[in-house]
Write a structure and sequence with these properties.
D-Maltodextrin-Binding Protein, domain 2, alpha/beta, 14 strands, disordered N terminus, 2 domains, transport, four-stranded mixed beta sheet, globular
Length: about 425
Amino acid sequence: MKLKRMVMVLALVAMTGALLQGCGKGNNDKNSSPSASPSGTTSAAPSDEKVTLKVWGDLGNQAVLEEPFKKINAAFSAKYPNIKLEYDFAQNDQSLNVALQANELPDLFWVQGDKTAKMGEMVKNGFLKDLSSYNIDVSRFADSEKNYCSIDGKLYCSMPSFFDTNVVYFNKDIYEKNGIKSPATWDEFVQGLETLKAANVTPIALAGKSEWDRAWPIFAFAPAFSDAALKAAQVGEGKLTDPSIVEALQAFRDFADKGYFGKNFLAQDYAASQFAFTNGKAAAIIDGTWANATYVESGLNLGRFSIPNKEGKKIVQSSYSNFMTYAVASTSKHPDQAVKYIEFLNSLEAQQILEDAVGLVPTLKDIVAKDEGVKELAIFDEAGVNIYTVLTALSSPESNTADVLMKDVIPKLMTSAITGAEGAATLDKAAKYPTK
């Protein structure tokens, strides 16, 4: 049995965890939702015993989340003085994998719901506590948010309450100086990039060295060009070689070929790309809505827009934010108290603290948007699929199609080693389509 468990753990550790992105249809039973009492009652109050909960925060986003989580945790401690939190920004893919191998998880840690298959694998292998029996009040949340946190109709994490996508952040001063407006169509978008290039301004800063951050343009292009085709492929009614998918991949290569990412983007990491944008060396950057606070704090005359397609429709990749989606480890010695933290993260009080600090796009009507800039992030026509989630759904134990995109196709596209058609063919070969 020990050998069998080790094999399962190693298989789980080998899976690629996405740090941010991608809300898909998931692999859960969509006709069922997590248990909740009809009256919306919450779990039983923990005893007066003084306990300490070890909680891991998102190390990769510590700069954004440190201040709001200080306030969230202080508010929780004021409400539950007998529960001490040891909250450390200690979690990334590596530390989580080590903890899984050693079976030494903290009491609570953040998960990505149905964005990737990893939460489902952790459930399958017994690492997460089923929260359904606690009758947690989920009445404020939509079915899609409940499904994000559920495996086979059972609840495993706190609810998402914010929406993530990729947008173009741009320097309004540079755009106005060059007579460029926020584009209404794809052609207007490209024409603006040509104008900037002719003026010797790098149109878009790109972190070519960073596996995830260099992927954001494709994450934005994919739904704009090929939302319907990706949806069809995910359910086995289409192929990844669809012309619209080819076009999205080719657009990324074209941007590299035409110099829209500048001359030295291949050697540039995320911090350097952000610095190029915030210091006026580049006119724009394609990044997530989760990074909004960073660009606001830079003091730029900041603008934002979602990329339009050729018809002028703005279809963006959809993703629930995992900034507040935490699970309880099955090994926690204090599950009742840990559930109280889950419930607090589900509360408007905690959610408003995060919104006031970071400025995310709320999915719940009672969360008040931080400012007009947040409202600008939410200007789009349709929330489409996330290409990473689609490719994860088309993966198999023998071939991780999402990894093929990130580690093979994207690097070759941005170095002009393959065409969009060749990239699509590579993905098609790696995919395992569902059978009818």
